[in-house]
Amino acid sequence: MTKFVFFSGKGGVGKTSLSSATALMLAKRGETTLLVTTDPASNLGDVFEQSVGSEASEVPGVPRLWIQEINPQASLQAYKDRAIAPLVDLFPPDVIRSVEEKMSGPCTEEIATFDQFIARMNEPQYDWVVFDTAPTGHTLRLLELPGSWSLHIEESAKGSGQTCIGSADSLMASKAEYDRAVSALQNPTRTTFIFVTQPASLSMDEMMRSSEELQKLSILNQAVIVNGVIPEDERTHPYSMRRWNKQQPLIAEIAHRFQGAIGHMPLYPNEVKGIAMLQKVGEDLQDAISL
User: Could you give the CA distance from residue 21 to residue 278 in angstroms, rounded to a whole number?
Assistant: First the structure.
């Protein structure tokens, strides 16, 4: 049965680097792995030094590792085209335009993106699917969507029968898929949610708020990686010592506030990109997290 690991956190904390290294680590130990980003700002292609598209592609030289990018705008357009196509021959152009306008709001975009997200959670050919998620607020909206959408469908069916994406009747068949996804997310033996934070107050506060929101969604298998910690052998240098002295109390604060597993990753002197560097990060990750 496919397992899932999600990386989330404030923008710029290192989610893409750590999710990429995790996917490589899993593939290297013989697990067929898909790494997929739902973050419009992700630099996944730069990290692997290859192009990344909407279809999963193999990473050259790394058996069992595939990478993929979910583009929210492309997902929205594909979703709208698929929904409107059956109506074109039934209604005049002005009605079709009206329907398309109603499907251009944030409700439809989130459902369209989550549709792609759900599809990745239903691909049994992978042992693991690693998600490099969007910044935390967007991620949480996507994770909350199945429940709120299911309720919206049920309520709409009792009333006008319309939702932000069309007839409720046409959506009921997909509700079961969304409910299965929620069940998988809430299953601690299948899903691990890893917050990435730096030892900085703003990043930590956002991480804790997000952790609490996930707990409300009954997603309890959570861990934290504190990224960018000054390595021990560099703490004697005056500049590094000053940074470490600022980091140390914040690292202690995370240990006090967060109840789950906590791992620490060092600040690397070089940019994390390319297979060799990702493998080095993956080796350090094995000591930081348990998957």
Answer: 5
